[in-house]
């Protein structure tokens, strides 16, 4: 009889726990979804069939973090955007400007020109307490489906340096579904506290396969928020020693091939020229014809990673930045002031 009673208690308790999480998730969603935005970007890309530049629209998500329109998102959503628009949950659309972008951590800040009445900013939580197994949920705009919620758990944590591309970022791995358009969207814990920003996924098919990655909010605090705003607006490829030889660079350690430059960015103000000629070298695609950056404030591009903190800490608004570049076979310098 005693065993029967215990079994009966267990049977009744299990559904209650699941239902409680579902109810909490629903209430959390109602309280938070209006603070999550969809970002629409415009820029240029290359039509590979015709080998020419063409207009391109991008899609991403973001989260409002202050009442004056500051939005936290993923760097790759806005890094080379010529124009950014913010769509709020009620459908209102306003222009926005990129404030700062940190590709090394896949984080960026943009500011919307205005915020609809009643939309409240989200507070960023201390992400150091996150553990594998914690329940989480994501709100974003996968495939442009505004205010979509998915849920799951934290699968793992990764310290800065674990991802060679986003080497400044502390990452959490999640199994909540994320897809194209989810990038930049907030990850919340079970109590509705923002603990991360969706970055990318690992996939063989191109779609979600259970392995999403988000940058922690502590990374955003330590590396981006409250720091001098720098938006290079550049994308391209790092050229190592072999490619330096192929490109006949005077800097034997290599450089950075500029392939795209966003309008209004620091790269644009410096006068950097983007690539326009598609080419394939060693099975890798390039856009040639643009500048190759060899040094930044006299630091070789190949050593920027080692001197990153030193360089960033030394820069202040109004300071002059100097780039040594190769353009058309000639070495020259470009200078510009940080805003």
Structure description:
By secondary structure, the chain is an alpha+beta fold. Helices cover 18% and strands 40% of the residues. It has a six-stranded antiparallel barrel. A hairpin with a 4-residue loop joins strand 10 and strand 11. The longest helix has 31 residues.
List the helices and strands and how they pair.
Blueprint: H1 2-32, E1 36-47, E2 52-64, E3 70-73, H2 75-78, E4 83-87, E5 93-102, E6 107-112, E7 135-140, E8 148-158, E9 171-174, E10 186-189, E11 194-201, E12 212-216, H3 217-223, E13 234-239, H4 241-246, E14 255-261, H5 266-270, E15 277-281, E16 284-288, E17 292-296, E18 299-300, H6 308-314, E19 320-327, E20 330-337
Antiparallel strand pairs: 1-2, 1-4, 2-3, 3-6, 4-5, 5-6, 7-8, 7-10, 8-9, 9-12, 10-11, 11-12, 13-14, 14-17, 15-16, 17-18, 17-19, 19-20
Quick one: CATH class of the largest domain? Mainly Beta
Superfamily (CATH H level) name of the largest domain: PDZ domain
Q: State the secondary-structure class.
A: alpha+beta
Tell me the strand order in the biggest sheet: 1-2-3-6-5-4
User: Low-confidence stretches at least 5 residues in length (pLDDT < 50)?
Assistant: 6-17
Q: Name the helicity range.
A: 10-25%
Give the SSE order as H and E letters.
Answer: HEEEHEEEEEEEEEHEHEHEEEEHEE
Mean pLDDT: 90
Largest sheet: 6 strands, antiparallel, barrel
Number of domains: 3
Q: Based on DSSP secondary structure assignment, what is the total number of beta strands?
A: 20
Going by CATH, the architecture of the largest domain would be Roll
Span from first to last CA?
76 Å
If helices are DSSP runs of H or I spanning 4 or more residues, what is the number of helices? Answer: 6
Q: What fold name goes in the CATH topology slot of the largest domain?
A: Pdz3 Domain
Using only CA atoms, what is the Rg? 22 Å
- The proportion of residues in beta strands is 35-45%
Q: Give the overall shape.
A: globular
Signal peptide: 1-22
Domain PDZ: 285-335
Keywords: Hydrolase, Protease, Signal
Organism: Pseudodesulfovibrio senegalensis
């Amino acid at each position: 009889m005693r065993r029967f009673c215990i079994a009966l208690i267990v049977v009744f308790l299990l559904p209650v726990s699941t239902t409680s999480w579902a109810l909490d998730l629903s209430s959390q969603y109602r309280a938070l979804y209006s603070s999550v935005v969809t970002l629409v970007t415009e820029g240029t890309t290359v039509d590979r069939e015709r080998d020419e530049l063409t207009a391109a629209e991008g899609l991403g998500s973001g989260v409002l973090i202050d009442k004056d329109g500051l939005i936290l998102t993923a760097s790759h959503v806005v890094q080379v955007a010529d124009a950014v628009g913010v769509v709020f949950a009620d459908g209102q659309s306003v222009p926005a400007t990129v404030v700062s972008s940190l590709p090394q951590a896949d984080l960026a800040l943009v500011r919307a020109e205005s915020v609809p009445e009643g939309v409240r900013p989200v507070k960023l939580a201390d992400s150091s307490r996150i553990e594998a197994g914690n329940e989480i949920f994501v709100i974003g705009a996968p495939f442009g489906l505004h205010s979509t919620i998915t849920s799951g758990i934290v699968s793992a944590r990764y310290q800065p340096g674990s991802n060679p591309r986003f080497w400044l970022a502390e990452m959490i791995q999640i199994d909540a579904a994320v897809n194209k358009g989810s990038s930049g969207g907030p990850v919340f814990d079970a109590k509705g506290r923002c603990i991360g920003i969706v970055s990318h996924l690992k996939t063989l098919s191109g779609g979600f396969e259970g392995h999403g990655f988000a940058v922690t909010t502590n990374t955003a605090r330590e590396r981006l928020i409250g720091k001098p705003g720098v938006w290079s607006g550049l994308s391209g490829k790092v050229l190592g020693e072999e490619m330096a030889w192929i490109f006949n660079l005077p800097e034997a350690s290599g450089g950075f091939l500029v392939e795209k430059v966003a309008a209004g960015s620091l790269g644009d103000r410096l006068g950097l020229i983007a690539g326009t000629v598609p080419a394939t070298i060693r099975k890798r695609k390039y856009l040639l014809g643009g500048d190759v950056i060899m040094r930044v404030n006299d630091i070789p591009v190949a050593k920027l990673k080692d001197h990153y903190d030193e360089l960033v800490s030394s820069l202040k608004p109004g300071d002059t930045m100097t780039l040594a570049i190769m353009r058309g076979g000639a070495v020259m310098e470009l200078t510009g002031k940080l805003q």
